[in-house]
Amino acid sequence: MEQTTHQRLTDYIVAHQEVFYRLAYSYVKNRDAALDVVQESIVKALSKSDSLRNPEFLKTWFYRILLNESMNYYRRSRRLVSLEEAGLAEAAAPQGDHGARLDLYAAIERLDPREQTIIRLRFFQDMKLEEIARVTETNLNTVKSRLYKSLGKLRALTGEECSYE
Questions:
Q1: Statement: the pTM of the whole predicted model exceeds 0.90
Q2: Measuring CA to CA, which residue among 95, 93, 41, 87 is closest to residue 65?
């Protein structure tokens, strides 16, 4: 019996929910906000699952929704002063991220949003460049160019050698 697109999407979401949370958190820097972004992405994806024409692109289709929701939240929240920025609360790190290199994360935050997205998808989500091109709806050569440019900027910002593997 063949699975429906809706069922495949549901199975994919359940299997990768922690990965989605970590990506959303990398944008919004707040546990509750990251959970909200993931939840909103899931609701949108499930409600529009019939619009997915080719089920083999389910992963990149869902990541595009998640990235759009993360960026929308980020844009909306920039206008507000968070408790963390006001010094009234301490930011919670995502689970399993205890040995985070804060200088690297700070350097990534200083990149252009398009460059941040490529770095996060390539190194935090372990996506192939072709998948990143589909998710971001960008030409593959543009993705490659931005990746190498971003790595150069990170090298300059951190004073360390960044390698592409």
A1: no
A2: 41
What is the Cα–Cα distance from 142 to 116, expressed in whole angstroms?
Answer: 14
The conformation of residue 55, written as its DSSP 8-state character, comes to G
Amino acid at 3: Q
Give the pLDDT of the chain (165 residues) as one tens digit per residue: 457 888 999 999 999 999 999 999 988 888 999 999 999 999 999 999 888 888 889 999 999 999 999 888 877 776 554 444 444 334 444 444 433 356 778 888 889 888 999 999 998 888 899 999 999 989 999 999 999 999 999 888 887 665 555
> Helix, strand, or coil here: 161?
coil
Domains of the chain with bracketed CATH: 1-89 (1.10.1740.10), 100-159 (1.10.10.10)
Backbone angles phi, psi at 9, to 5 degrees: -65, -45
* Rounded CA separation 71/37 (Å): 9
**Which ranges in 79-119 belong to alpha helices (H)?**
102-109, 113-119
List Cα–Cα distances, 155 to 23, 158, 161, in angstroms. Answer: 22, 5, 6
